[in-house]
């Protein structure tokens, strides 16, 4: 667990890179119950104007949350978390899939040993989550 005095304003979270493949999307669909065809069927995705199959927004959000909780060392320290879905994560039908990078910086200290972290979440150099913020309680 990160101590309050170890994460002053300006502290950067290490950038995490997550690989996302079509297999991951199928597994997430099974776990979430979201079987929308745009998340696994290229023909359907392109028919509705997407460049290819795209990752579930909540899956992408979950990766960002995981980067924060892994840094904290305690998932229970996450107090508040929100994002805006700004661009889709395109997942090609290859063994490598694509990558999602998550970084962040402590922007503000609050009462009760809490800090606000602003996250940067990108895929292929494009920001895919906007207004991504997490409030966490430090030890």
TrEMBL record:
Residues 16-115 form the MaoC-like domain. CDD domains: SAV4209_like (cd03453). SUPFAM superfamilies: Thioesterase/thiol ester dehydrase-isomerase (SSF54637). It comes from the Bacteria. InterPro entries: HotDog_dom_sf (IPR029069), MaoC-like_dom (IPR002539). PANTHER family: (3R)-HYDROXYACYL-ACP DEHYDRATASE SUBUNIT HADB, 3-HYDROXYACYL-THIOESTER DEHYDRATASE HTDX-RELATED. Belongs to the enoyl-CoA hydratase/isomerase family. This is MaoC family dehydratase. It comes from Actinocatenispora sera. The lineage of its organism: Bacteria, Bacillati, Actinomycetota, Actinomycetes, Micromonosporales.
């Amino acid at each position: 667990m990160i101590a309050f005095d170890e994460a002053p304003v300006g502290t950067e979270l290490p950038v995490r890179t997550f690989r996302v493949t079509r297999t991951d999307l199928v597994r997430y669909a099974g776990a979430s119950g979201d079987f929308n065809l745009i998340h696994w069927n290229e023909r359907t995705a392109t028919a509705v104007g997407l460049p290819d199959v795209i990752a579930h927004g909540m899956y992408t959000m979950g990766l960002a949350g995981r980067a924060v909780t892994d840094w904290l060392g305690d998932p229970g320290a996450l107090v508040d978390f929100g994002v805006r879905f700004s661009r889709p994560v395109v997942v090609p039908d290859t063994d490598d899939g694509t990558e999602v990078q998550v970084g962040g910086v402590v922007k503000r200290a609050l009462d009760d040993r809490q800090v606000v972290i602003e996250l940067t979440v990108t895929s292929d150099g494009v920001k895919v989550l906007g207004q991504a913020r997490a409030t966490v309680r430090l030890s």
